[in-house]
Fold:
Amino acid sequence: MARYYLIGLILSLAGIALGYLLLPSMDTLALIYLRDHDYGRALELMEGQLEEHTDLSPPSVLILANLYQLNGKVDQAILVLEKHLVRYPRDLDGRKELGKLYQYAQRESDYLANLEEIHRLQPSLEVLQQLSNLHDFSGNSEKQIPILKEIIQRHPHHVGGYRDLAKVFMAEGEFQKVVDTLRDMKSRHRRELDGKSLKMLVYSLLKLGHKEEALDEARSWLNGQVDESTAEMIGELLQQGESAELAWSWVEELRRRLPTSDRVLIQWGRIAAISGRQKLALPLLSDRLRQKRLSATGVALLAELSVKSNRFGQAIRVMTILPEGERPVWLQRLVGEQAVLSAGPFSSRLVLESLDRPFLLGHPVLAAELLLHAGVRADELNSWLELGRKGELEPEWRLRLASLFLKLGRWREGGEILMAMAREPQHPPPEVFRELARYFIQIDDTQGGLVFFDQVGQTIKTDALAAARILLLAGVAGRQQDCIAWIQARSQLAHAFLDDLVHRALDSGQLVLAREVLTRLDPLPPDFSTTSTPSPPTREALERTILWARLNRAEGQTMTALRRLQPVRRYLDANGKNFYEELVMATWRDKQPVRQEVLAILKEHLGPPAQQLPPDLRREYGRLALEVGERNMGLRAFLDAAETVAVDSPEMAQLLYILGPRPDPFAMDWLLQRARRADDSSLPAWVTILSGVGAAPQAVALAELRNRGPGQHPALTEALLRALTSTKTTSRVEELIVAEAAVPSSTSRLHSLATIAEENNLHKVAKNIYQNIIKLDPDDEKALKRLGYMAFYSGEWEQVVAFLGRYLGHHDDNHEPYFYLAEVYRSLGMVEKAKPFYLKALDKIASLQHPPFSIRVTQTRIWERIGRWSEALKGYGALMREQPGDAKLKADYVELLLIRGMTREADQVLRLAGVR
Structure:
């Protein structure tokens, strides 16, 4: 009996033990709570297990990280996984989970580093594609290209890798590499390219000058499935490649393949007109119109081609097919202005009647011109003339209105318009005075014009007015004696007045008048040719010399003019030097004996044995040698003249400009010798010069030899860094910058080093330097701004708030930092805190007179952010009309339209590529 009790006791104890074994583990309990959405209780269990067992298993770590995330503790989840991966670096599941958390926390740099580690452990197409996309987003093509090449190598049948690599090469202007990549893709896949790839291939071939190959590739693509959008773009590329014939061959092929396509027909018609085949396009477009199969764009094209062929009747019939209000303004203006130029009276009347009433009301001067050309009575023009007079017209139309009044003999009205323009507070455009002189000449009313200019001259004193007054007389054929008499009647005439008169007289071929004026200035022309080293002439003498040289040239005595200016050319101002260059070109392009004389002068002064000329005169003869094609002689003259000049002198700057970015070998040797002889103070400038002319390796060697260590010669070190940058020796640049930054120095010096670091993409080094600057000056403007921007682009929102917030608290700036800070607050969910910064950015943009496209995009997006919907919609509409091909802009516009419930408008934006 006792034995049975013993057996029962043993079985009971075994049952109890087995019951303990069947109890769920902590992980299992946590999963149960997780399934029941009791995240807090599940997290307590797992944290308790973490306290008891610091080294959790990989599955337990993943559970704990997920629970932290579900409880909103993303940073703790990241920390747990990071510690875990220190012990288990090859845990792929842990790394993938950490990558998701980095994305959630917007830690882009950490996400990228983790993704690169995943790629190292287990490379896959998905990981490679993610790496490529990240480098593409940050614009780091240097890292993206190897990734894309690895995609192609590991996954040769993945088309996207080839296309993305070609896009990167395209962005960098490596057109041959684009061609090689796409042709490799084409050969491997045994199929034609998609539309985007074809566009890149054709564009690159055109850029390389391989126009026939570009056309062959496009034709090959036609053998597959053709979409009209791509076909149209290829035509545009061929046309923009300055090859109208290639474009014509292409659109001819398209028309045969797609005979019913309206888009193809319209492009064919445009290229036909550009390539001189306008007569071919007109019948085909007309036939399509009769069949009622021509779109509104095609109708406008047919009308345009008709009017350019002076077929005004056809142009009118075609244009009026379009309903009133839908006729393009540009087309109506083209038809009207072409009619004024070349149509007959009857056609002009018909054109006027075909134009929309609202268009005519907006162009009253054009309406009056058409009426006048049609031969109507003057009283019929009054309503349009009065409308033009009362309207706020652009200067062009105001001048044309004045011309109409003058043609009608209504001088008072025309004069009032021109006088009003001349007396406006803003500086009147010179065309106003020239137009006044021209109109008076046209009606042969010289005296009346003189009286008018005298009246204007009482209130306005400008060179343009003085020149216009002289143009009134000097521009009229056969009026030289009147001009001479007018001059002789005045004892005191300003030099500027006479100079204007000479120029106008020479321009109009009135050489007798020009000589009379010059004789009035001085009966004996100045002559400096007899003195070997002339002293500086007076201003008046120099001006008279230039005027006499211009007259000699007009009379065909170019060598005489050249000899007048040679002794004084070093003293010429910019206008005089330009004239001297024209004169030199005229002499050596003249008859052979003249050119030989110019060469003889050069050899006399620059050829061996050369005279001991002053440096300035040697440079002048060197310049003349360059003008006549004697390059070696000219360069050696400039080098000889610069043998002792300072490295930072204007003469050295002039020499470097003439030598160009790649000097001749003997000139390069000269520069190297001067650099090697330089003292410590001028050596940095020489290192910079050598780097700029393609001798960066020699500049590096020279600077490294003379560099005495960190902080010893800052100017030389900076020049060395610039030279190393040219040689792309980034590791050495980083080493030097770190060493220099470690030496105590001023904030300006640190700023210079940080700038060079950023130019070499050493962003971590630059960041450290800026942080050191902040330690020296907590309110340093540039350091705060750059650190804020760096934090913004790396997704470190709290740092952005810290740095840009402090920056804007002490420094004012343009819209950009305000916009960035607002975007960060918005990303952090602090919408109300973001709004004042959005508004501040808008105020900054509003202060700009002509903001560029990119800033107007930002302005429109700010309107959207703060809920100013009508302004945002209007802004997107204007931007889309300006750049209809911008896909990102179109997507934002459509998204806003959909949000506002404007589905029809969104559909229209998606369907239309743009409006002409």
